[in-house]
Amino acid sequence: MSRSAQELLEFDKLKEIVGGFTTCAPGRRAIHALEPQQDAPALRNEFALVRETAAYLRAGSEFGFGSLADPEPWLERLRMPTLVLTSAELLDAASLIDTVGGVRQTFKSDAAKFPLLAARSAALPDLRHLSAAIRRAILPNGEISDDASPQLKRIRAGIAHSREKIQRSLEAIMRARGEPAGEDYVTLRNDRFVIPVRASERRTVPGVVHGASGTGQTVFVEPLEAIDLNNRLVQLGEDELAEIARILEELTERLRGEHGPLEAAAASIAHLDSVFARGRFARDYDCVMPEFSAGNSLRLESARNPVLEATLRPQGRTTVPLTLALGGEETVMVVSGPNTGGKTVSLKTVGLAALSAQSAIPVAAASAELPIFDRVLADIGDEQSIAADLSTFSAHMLNLKSMLEVATDRSLILVDEMGTGTAPEEGAALAVALLEEFRARRSLTLATTHHDRLKAYASTTPGIVNAAMEFDEENLRPTYRLLVGVPGTSSGIEIARRLGLPARVVNRAQASLSPESREARDLIAYLHRSRDEVNDMKGQARDELAQLDAERRSLQTEWIERQKKRIAELERNFLEMQKRLEGEVARLIAEVKDRSLRGQIEKQGARRLGKIESEARADADAAVVETLSASQADLGATLAAPGKPVAPEVLAAGQRVIVKGFKQPMVFRRHDGRSAEVEAGPMRMKVPLADIIGIEEAAAVSTKPGAVAPVSRGVTVHAQASDEDAAEEINVIGCTVEEATGRVDKFIDNAAVAGKPSVRIIHGHGTGALRRGLAEFLSAHPLVEKIAHEKPERGGEAITIAELKS
Fold first, then answer.
1. Tens digit of pLDDT for each residue in 264-274?
2. pTM of the prediction?
């Protein structure tokens, strides 16, 4: 009898591996019960749950049921109406109920992060009242508690009282007899209290003898005075056993009344343990949750055979992953290559991935997309059967016949070494005919072969793809890499030559090859060389691209450093020129004798210096912007292609605009028809009007006239026009101290030139750092007479008033 596809693909071994990640017996049974199914929505839901458990585990948490006893034995006994559970079995039932309660509590607090696990746990039955009843009646060691029932408590109190009374009575008898030390003790024989008496004095103690010592010198006598008391004690003992049996029966019946929920709870725990086992398997074997295609698309990237990987890991070895795609018009793949080159492993890897995906087990791959197969059919290995009088070839033919009887366009066909076991020409012809039949049915088919005819057939037939298991010709070793698109070569004669077979034998074999075989071998060798050359060219191109990218980043970094140095130099030159001008003005003023005239000159000089400084800064900013725009374009730093210039009439102060050559939006202030003034943080710049290529949809940064701007601590500030040259106030909320002082400095310069007597600076409350920094800056400003806070009803400490020198 031929083996099933699951046996041939070692699906049971895979389940053994996954089952090793479970923490309880029900979970292991749940893993071994997994079978391929065709319900795609159910599979997607199951994988969503496994994905969530994998995320839970990756977050550093762990979850298991290692302390849970297997509930199957006592659940089975509970199905039988007349059986009563033992105290140990009842404790196991309480353990299951407590475990369910723990699960409910664990995921209740993580419902936002793990909604699927929380939903599953919330659906578990709440049977805590049963657990409480069992825990109250049975102690952890399995003994029945005195508090199990009032009747049991009374009986056990009576037993204790009777024991004590018997002890006192027997001790009184021994004291009256004057027994020597060591022989005056009370003991038990046949569950009755007795005293030791020397055999020679037996008649001196009336009563019933219940045994003798090993030497026969001592007999154990139950005195007549103790018989009634012992009888009472025995009766109480029987009453106790009867009450315990009643308690156990009552608890069993209560559990039997909840048999359905208990079965459901056990099944839920088993499923949850199996889900977490699959999550651990996915984590330890680098697996993915597969996607299911609506058509016949099968795509595996870096897929591995986990059964083979589990075998190689203890040896410190790794598997070679394979990547392939099949589907659409291409439904058949012919894999060729040398013996022991990994062809069979490739078939098993694909087949095991299909079985895993349809059994809700994560697939060992970087990514996996598979159809929902109606069946996986495999003919792998030597199926020779002496008992059935079948040769290997006959067994393969019977397997292929049974495949043809059931194969559809939704089947996966895996055939190893097609056409072997008979004459090569006949075997190849049969293989081609079979592949043609599978192609006509549009079954996804992977077949391995050594026949050149099948390689040629795959190369010339639409819908069929060649693939080769790579072989290292230099070292005569398989690499186990699957190369899609080229056929493989067996390399048998070359291997024989390298292994030292006599040259005359090798040459004779070489010469006996048919011209077609030699041509096919040479063509395959050429295709492999071409593929290697293309791969080398791709690698070289990637390296050159990486080098060019590194050089571009280096050039961009150098340019930025150069521009920083240039800007710093411009700043130094400007400060030196400003100092010289101030010194010259101060010298000229000092020469004026008239005090009133000198005051006027000082004011006019300060205004003029402020205006010169503002103009110089604007010109410097415009030059920087122009340099940045041109140089960034040269370096390829611009992210987006230039858009069309925005029409000037749609521009409004406060809009956030996109400026050509800059990544971040800027705030538009004004324009003069040719150039526009924009603001980026503390820097105000002039750019060509045509460089404004877009308006950001978000709300404008600056408030428009009459708008309300929020100030911390609930203060509301009514902002004036956003044109800072003509405005009497500036809003610097959200700026750093450095940014705010830069903006306020320019604002005061413009206000002084415009003849404003005072200005309002809106900075908000916040932490107070911005207010203190601005106060320190304004106190030292040459154009500021004094500063004060705004009136409480108009903003209070959230706004600073700076009176300017006249």
1. 999 999 999 99
2. 0.61
